[in-house]
Amino acid sequence: MTGPYGREQRPVLDVVDLVKTYGEGETAVHALAGVSMTVAPGDYVAIMGSSGSGKSTLMNIVGCLDVPTSGTYRLDGVDVSELNESQLALVRNRRIGFVFQSFNLIARTSALANVELPLAYAGIKPAVRRERALAALDMVGLANRAEHDPNQLSGGQQQRVAVARALVSQPALLLADEPTGNLDSRSTADVLSILDGLNAQGRTIVLITHEDEVAAHAHRTIRLVDGLVVSDVRRRDITPVGVPA
Amino acid sequence: MSFFEIFGFALRGVAANKLRSGLTVLGILIGVAAVILLVAVGTGSAKQVEDSLAALGTNTLTVQGGRGGDTGYRTDLTLDIVKALQDKESAPDVKSVSPVVNSAQTLTFGDASYDVNSVIGTYPSYFAASNSVVASGSGFTEEDVDQAARVVVLGPTTAEELFGTTVDPVGQRIGIAGQIYSVIGVLAKKGSTGFNDPDDVAIAPLPAVQRSLTGYGPVSSITIEAASADAVAAAKAEITAILNAKMHVADGASSTPYQIRDASQLLETRTATAETFTVLLGAVAGISLVVGGIGITNIMMVSVTERTREIGIRKALGAPRRVILTQFLIEATLLSLAGGGLGVAAALIGANFEIVGIKPVVMPDSVALALGVCVAIGLFFGSYPASRAAGLRPIDALRYE
Questions:
Q1: CA–CA separation, B46 and A87 (whole Å)
Q2: Is B121 helix (H, G, I), strand (E, B) or coil?
């Protein structure tokens, strides 16, 4: 593939005319009314929009948690709409790391076990798993909190564990749905600096936010209004993609 | 992802809510313990019936007369018929024939009196035929019969009622309806068959009883001992032939003026009754097991609903459907197996005690069956909540509040 991304670089994300409709007939709600966008490897994209603009719906479809009503979606060159449920589970496990607004750690389960979980589902051996999970926790600065349960961690720490969990399986794409929505300013800064660092290492990141300060960290901002893309602004060039550290 | 690890998830899921899991386990425990214990009680009572009937002698036949079927001739059971039955030529499979007369009488000893259930007048062969063993003293002899000697052998219940436990009955003289008899022996205890007490008897020589108590009419019944347990059917055929000839019963008559019962028949009837009883008890207990199973479904549904978000997170992290399904199935099976195991333990402990006078006999089959049913219950009643959990769309599960 050639184009603005240079040779040999197919987009991580290639969404064409995505439509998502809830309900039927007169009461139908068009959450997405035909969204098209492309995200190249190493890009750092912020999707902005007010409540009801369809940004969360878009994120859920991109994260393979939901299916579009129509339109095509290619992740890393694979047409996701043609995959069956078990293949989708595999895609969620290997290609996507998801960070949620409400952290979504599993309760009564240590930070380490939470981070290990995607690897466990991927069938990686316990010893290797532990090593990689500890490395991921170390990357977010929480190696010393590995044995703590989520309720023993602060919100910021929980979100950092969630980030570690999202990146432990070396996914092609890191999705973050309002990752700082539930955090104070200090924790927000912590989490964002981790995301910045990851992008600097070449990781592709798409995050949803409605805060301009958060969006300012990204290299490109896409605005959604009523399920349509209204603006797509690039502020910085894509980080040159090397081999992720 | 290995089964062992999914098992770990399941174990944590069960342990996360100990009280709820405990109550569910209790439901299954009660069901399983009830099934095993009630079946054990049923089996125990069947065994008791079997034992006590076997004590009566399984190669014994009883002929009872006065059953109608008018042939125009005399159809009473007489001593003439007894003699005919004793004929070795026409009845080679008959070992002994004992005519029996029977009457309820009042026994007296000093100031004590006791209404005995039955005073039996018979021949000495009756002791062997009815499995009556003389425990102390002796039985009477052919000579006593010939002389119509007024001697009597008491059943243990009768002896105790009349003499208490301090006086040795043997050698004492008692009154039977005003006639004096000498007690020459006491029988060993047989134990109850449930309806009447076979130990509540007084056995005396036939002519003595006829002379002093019943008169010289027909005998009430004839107890016949076959040569062996295998010869019972042959003996029965021979007896039928002799009785038909004596009573002039036409060939192929629809009814006979007599009835021949054998102990094995009685045994079969009683055992069948006991088995029906066991099945009934088992069915009632089975219902409680099913109720316990529904309890598992209920708890697993609650668990799935409560953990919908967790399921959503797991799916978002790429948990395949199979893993979620297995995790919840294992959780349900763990609950039912824990209940089953504890239920078996409770039943085994409970089986050491007598329940309503019956010593329970635990059948190994019922234990294996109960445990097998437990696994089946876990899988069956757990499968609906588990498949519901596994079938949740990740986005719906994550949005669930």
A1: 60
A2: strand
Q: Do B310 and A60 touch (CB under 8 A)?
A: no
Residues in chain B closer than 8 A to A116 (CB atoms): none
Q: Within 13 A of B372's CA, how many CA atoms are on the CB side?
A: 6
Q: Does residue A12 fall inside a structural domain?
A: no
pLDDT tens, N- to C-terminus, chain B (401 residues):
678 888 888 888 888 888 989 998 998 898 889 888 888 888 888 887 777 666 666 678 888 876 565 566 667 888 888 888 888 888 888 888 999 998 888 888 888 888 888 899 999 988 888 888 888 888 899 898 898 889 999 998 888 888 888 888 888 899 988 889 999 999 988 766 555 677 888 999 999 998 888 888 888 889 888 888 778 888 888 888 888 888 888 777 777 788 888 776 777 777 788 788 888 888 888 888 888 888 888 888 888 888 888 889 999 998 988 888 998 899 889 988 999 999 999 999 988 888 777 888 888 888 888 888 888 888 888 888 889 888 888 888 888 87
Element (H, E) at B97: strand B94-109
Comparing CA positions, the residue from A151, A202, A158, A197 lying closest to residue A179 is: A158
Q: Which residues of A touch B (CB under 8 A)?
A: 60, 63, 65-66, 85-86, 89-94, 98, 100, 104-109, 117-118, 120-123, 165, 169
- Domain range holding A48? 41-67+84-234
Q: What is the CATH number of the domain that holds A63?
A: 3.40.50.300
The answer to the question of residue A211 being in a domain is yes
- Comparing CB atoms, the residue among B16, B310, B317 nearest residue A92 is B317
Report the number of distinct structural domains present in chain A.
1
Instruction: Report the run of H or E that residue B42 belongs to, with start and end.
Output: helix B18-55
Residue of B nearest to A124 (CA): B1
Of A66, A107, A117, the CB nearest to B317: A117
3-class DSSP state of A96: strand
In b/e form, how buried is each residue of B237-262, taking b as 16+ CB within 10 angstroms?
ebbeebbbebbebeeeeeebbbebeb
Residue contacts between A and B (CB atoms, under 8 Å) = 66
Cβ within 8 Å, pair B316-A104: yes
Q: Any idea where the domains of chain B sit in the sequence?
A: 3-52+268-399, 60-262
Is residue A7 assigned to a domain?
no
- Domain assignment present for A61: yes
> Which stretches of B123-192 are assigned E, i.e. beta strand?
134-137, 151-154, 173-176, 179-187
Cα(B232)–Cα(B126) distance, integer angstroms: 17
ipTM of predicted complex: 0.88
